[in-house]
Amino acid sequence: MNCAPRAALLCGCWLSALLLALPAGGNEAGSVSLIDQDGRDFRLDTLHGQVVLLVFGFTHCPHICPVEMARMSAALSELEASGDEVSGVFITVDPGRDTPAVIKSYIEKFHPGIVGLTGAADALDTVADYYRVRRNEQQLEEGDYLIDHGYSLYLLDPQGEAQVAVLPGLPPAHIVSLARELLQK
Predict the structure, then answer these.
(1) Which end of the chain is more exposed for a tag (fewer CB within 10 A), N or C?
(2) Do 155 and 163 meet the contact criterion of CB atoms below 8 Å apart?
């Protein structure tokens, strides 16, 4: 199998993760001002130099988002236990309901080092669009809604570029393995 340079990380495991084709030339998403779970300004480019596990989701998600957060938490705990420095970030796709306080309460159920982010809808749109997260609101009875947002767990390299989207259902050990490969680059 011939692998493109960026795909070298994934040779032999293409069924377990997807390469992301992001726009060339700069990461405008990194400089967008978001708001963390404590109400402070936060920019993703402050994490440059680190490998990042990034989950897009929403706190009212009944099934998939909590599973993805648990996978990220387990991977972060394993990486941390072996001395690997990897950051975890949760970005909401539902700024209407996910205030900093709501996000703080949500992420406290997972790994203590996860940063939870919300912000103005246009700022979140810029970040989501950059990482090719497409949100589709699905109306439920009595005015409630869910948001389909596709793959939600990404591994970012130290430059803030998404290298892979990890398919749902893969064990945390797989995420750990991919993160360690990025750490060695």
Answers:
(1) N
(2) yes
Helices (H), the chain: 64-81, 100-107, 121-130, 172-184
Task: Please give the residue range of the domain that contains residue 140.
Answer: 29-184
pTM of the model: 0.84
1 part of a folded domain: no
Give the CA angle between residues 48, 49, 55 to the nearest 5°. Answer: 55
Rounded Cα distance, 39 and 93, in Å: 17
Q: Is 135 a member of any domain?
A: yes
User: What is the gyration radius of the CA atoms in the chain, in angstroms?
Assistant: 16
Residue 10 lies in a domain: no
pLDDT in tens, 78-128: 999 988 889 999 999 999 999 999 999 999 999 999 999 999 999 998 988
**Residue in 141, 164, 183, 166 with CA at minimum distance from that of residue 21:** 164
> Domain count of the chain?
1
Return d(Cα 154, Cα 18) in angstroms, integer: 9
